[in-house]
Amino acid sequence: MDLSGIFSYLIFFLVITSVYGLLSLGLNIQWGYTKLFNIGIAGFFAVGAYTSAILTTPAATDRIGGFDMPFIPALLIAVLLSGFIAFLIGIPTLKLKEDYLAIATIGIAETIRLFFNNEAWVGNGVRGVSHIPRPFHQYIHFDYNVFYLLLMLFFVVCVYLAIEKALKSPWGRVLKAIGEDETVTLAMGKNVFRYKMESLVLGSMIMGLAGALYAHFIQFISPEVFVPMTGTFLVWVMLISGGSGSNKGALLGALVIWGLWSLTGLISNVVPVAYAVKVGALRVIVIAIVLEVILIVRPQGILGQKSVLQMPKNGE
Amino acid sequence: MLQLFANGIVFGSIIALGAIGLTLVYGILKFANFAHGDTMTLGAYLALLFFNLQLPLPIAVALSVILSVVIAILIDQYLYKLFRSTGPIILLISSVGVALLLRNLVLLFWGPDLTYYSRDIQISYPVLPGLRFNNTDIGTMITAAVLIVLVHLFLKKTKIGKAMRASSDNMDLAEVVGIDTQRVIIWTWTVGTALAVTGGIMLGMENGLRPTMGWELLLPLFAAAILGGIGQPYGAMVGGLVIGIAQEVSTGYISTAYKPAVAFVIMILVLLIRPQGIFGVSKRWI
Q1: Cα–Cα distance between A4 and A10 in angstroms, integer?
Q2: What ipTM was assigned to the predicted interfaces of this complex?
Q3: In sequence order, which residues have a C-beta less than 8 Å from that of residue A102 and are 6 or more positions away?
Q4: Is A274 on the interface with B (CB under 8 A)?
Q5: Which domains does chain B have, with CATH numbers?
Q6: Of the four, A251, B20, B156, B177, which is 20 to 30 A from A41 by CA?
Q7: What pTM was computed for the model?
Q8: Inter-chain CB proximity B86 and A299 less than 8 Å
């Protein structure tokens, strides 16, 4: 690879890192602060991506479409729809024990993926949605990917600053209190269900935003993109390794883990095709081992604070 | 319709075997074990290894069960034990890591392709008008029924079985009255894993083996455990059959691809209407 090749790979790498950064920030609101166990990230990611893709693409013969909507309103609808799905999931699960939310969210994510896989009239099934337009393409007279990286950084910085501010506000302190001890927060007269719902919806909206931005960058999405491994578990490993409860940690985790994942991906590109599956399995094994080691050695993550991850013992 | 219902009983017996272990671990160790489905996968592939060594069926199954139980106990003692004091969610996250690890080890050693225990073609024969079974179906139902009776006797009649039920009801109280909780934990993994692995092998006989077979069963397993009431082994048996029948009967009306979604919808309905499950006691779980 020559110098310009390395440069363009780096730009591509950083754009995807930013997408994961947004996912990780969204999860940090839910898990890092409020201790909401969402393992259906891929579902909200997919809803955002498909919504924006379907709304902005020109008419297609084999699926619904032809809305030709501009980027910004489509993005808004994608974000709102992701939030709405989260709201629906929150109703039956947020009053129950935390594990129920985990099981329900993985259920919704798989159902959403099955839906896009089988209902070809919506998103063209396994063949996916292609030719997703690049926003502001006609105005950009330099390397488009560089522009897109700037656009991504704009969104990451905006989301980061907004949630930093929100989480330092009284509202954010209630979320943190719920994460630390739900019963005490309830006893203090806070409407725990409402705060949890707001946390779930807000986090999922950020995940939907990440999905839409991913779709407009890659210009092609299919259900394959939203499998649990890359859609959900990588994000979890990012947040846990970076530091649950810390927004900087969420972003750092996205960079480190996406770096590790990409690096092992480069190895799988150079080995003979016959070994590709084995290397693919080894990549996941590496991530799983990283997860377990972090849980054992430094459960609060690189930048996490200890108090945020301390949990009441069984039965207390 | 009758055939779909009967298929549901076959498939439901497999789900029931998996769900009993899931619900016991949930009740006693207080965490949702996301690696349970992949334990079924591991056991099914270990059995493939022993079948290929030309070992007779009972010995191959027994060896696969024993090996899987040892692996499950080792994972518990060297990994999960470290997180017991930090709470159920860290255990859950850790079990997700174990799930990925087990599934990808299977993928690493056996590859991604659909594999079969035997190349022989299964001949199904009429049992009742409009109802056909093959030998595997009959074997699956009989094995599941025998195992469920054995689990019942184990939980009701043996001292350790009673201790397990007591611990599942209330761990602290069980400890106070002098139950050896360490032993209960080992037995929980033993029973849960043995049932899961047998279920996994039967699933392999019915549908063939894929590294994702157990992971894809996880949602129906949880749905069955929640439907029956978490920590309730009898509930898990009933829940397994209900989910299995609902999934198979649904294929008469909607695409088979939506089977996991059927389990999911039932689970959500249960959570909305009766979150403690059919056999659950209400106050403990809310």
Answers
A1: 10
A2: 0.88
A3: A37, A38, A39, B32, B92
A4: no
A5: 2-111+136-285 (1.10.3470)
A6: B20
A7: 0.90
A8: yes
